[in-house]
DNA sequence: GCGACACTACACCGTGCAGTGTAGAAGCGC
DNA sequence: GCGCTTCTACACTGCACGGTGTAGTGTCGC
């Protein structure tokens, strides 16, 4: 019998500490450079415990990413409801879209975490096929945004024949230049710069998607 | 005296072979995973020779990237002149822009090299600060495209108050979704898919930048 | 007190890999 | 032929790191 190595269940608090430390170190150093010893130190936990909890470095990595992704998706939904509610009125539209874009991009560039995770995903996509989500429109973030845009379209504020596509472009226009210039968070950007880039992106989006353009 | 390790000049052909092999292995495996032995094997050269030529892994890496970048920039200029000449007429515009976008994105997604290099840069930007070009508008690719758009603007085909910004958006719209979905070349995309994504991007660009929109 | 479990500290193994040293073969100018 | 350089083949060092084994220290339920 190949006997499963029987990972330990352990306490949720400790799991959380490990996963948080792991993400921090992975994001900072990259997968290969990150050492399990460093993660253990960061989590204030013995290396042995990490192996008892997660088995090996790879599974720790995947767990950390999965957990973070879920948290980020939840964050995004909240952000979307806060800045771009379905009840947005016509003359609030540009302001609301800019607020949405700014909140989104600021989160990307300041918290550094979102973009950094993206950077990590891009770096490791080829080595961990399971990280690659097959259906691009299935990404919850895109889906939520598409639904919101569709609502705005039905109310006649925007002209969005293809909400999924429009959502992709909006995300791209708003965050693309920020990611491009900051190398997905590797290089810090000034706040004013971020704002300027975001506003430019929203302006282009509106020129392309405003009703009757 | 700290005596410089005196790198060997060597033959250009051998240098080229090493650099090409290095890029291939670095792109395939990433910087840390790539072993100098593997590069030597790939280049059909002894490991010692690589060290005599380049000193250490890091300098080899930087040389390979620098050389590739220059080549890609030259390629881009040629591509731009071929698909989007300054003499483009009004009714050729959409077709020419699409051709440009398609050629650009196809090169990105098919040759795999361009996107893969980008992936490598994103992955290593934080670890090799010298890779990060400080001036984002100084990237020759963006500059060349901006000049071309400015020409089209002056001839009244497009409305581009800020050509540098427009160039950035065009690049983003055309390649962004391809990069996004292919994880910068880590996942292959079907040709038809690429074409569809590119055309969508051009359509949005034109809606936003067409004269009198 | 006692057993069971969680955890740490620490020593340890194996391996992969950056980088070096060197002997010798191959080519070239003269 | 002779000396010089280039290059290879190969052995070797040092080190970092993934992963394991284990003895010992709490800590909790009973």
TrEMBL record, chains A, B:
Signal peptide: none annotated. The keyword Transcription regulation applies. Keywords: DNA-binding, Transcription, Transcription regulation. Residues 12-72 form the HTH tetR-type domain. Residues 35-54 bind DNA. One of its GO terms (molecular function) is transcription cis-regulatory region binding. One of its GO terms (biological process) is negative regulation of DNA-templated transcription. InterPro entries: Homeodomain-like_sf, HTH-type_TetR-like_transc_reg, HTH_TetR, TetR_C_Proteobacteria. The keyword Transcription regulation applies. It comes from the Bacteria. This is TetR family transcriptional regulator. It comes from Sinosporangium siamense. The lineage of its organism: Bacteria, Bacillati, Actinomycetota, Actinomycetes, Streptosporangiales.
